[in-house]
Amino acid sequence: MNKLVVAVATLLILAAINWAIWDKEKHLAEGEVVYLALAPVDPRSLMQGDYMALNFEIGNRIRQAVRERTSGDEARDAANGHVVVTLDERRVAHFERLGKGDEELAESEMRLRYRVRNGRVEFATDAFFFQEGQAERYESARYGRFRVDEQGDPLLVSLHDDELERLGDVER
Q1: Mean pLDDT of all residues in the chain?
Q2: Would the pTM count as exceeding 0.70?
Q3: Helix (H) or strand (E) holding 147
Q4: 11 SS3 class
Q5: Which position has the higher pLDDT, 68 or 155?
Q6: 47 forms bridges with which residues in the sheet?
């Protein structure tokens, strides 16, 4: 009986892991491409080991809008939300307004999900990891390329320079 329970539990865990992998691969393959402009970060934390700390300009606008909408402590502890952005001809996202759940969007608008943790706005990640010794390739990064699914969840794919040229070797 114990072996049966262990076998079933193992199969359930493997199925859940494989479903999560399949879901992320689908997200990367089918999500809409969006570029978010990077904002400056503390230069001491810009390059730390084999990753780059990331901050996004749109996050600063979100933080300001959240602060205007709520009181100080509520804004600092806010959990999740959506921001409505417009995309320019290069697919760079620009802040439009904070989202209100299931509101109708104009054709030129898109919804992105964000999280606020300790007063910092985060999207899919706050860091970009790369191979050891490759930091110089990413020093000119000005944009993050994301794939966004129907729910507005962004996944970071790659970093790009001012001309939206991909930095590094791998892109999806």
Answers
A1: 80
A2: yes
A3: strand 143-148
A4: helix
A5: 155
A6: 52
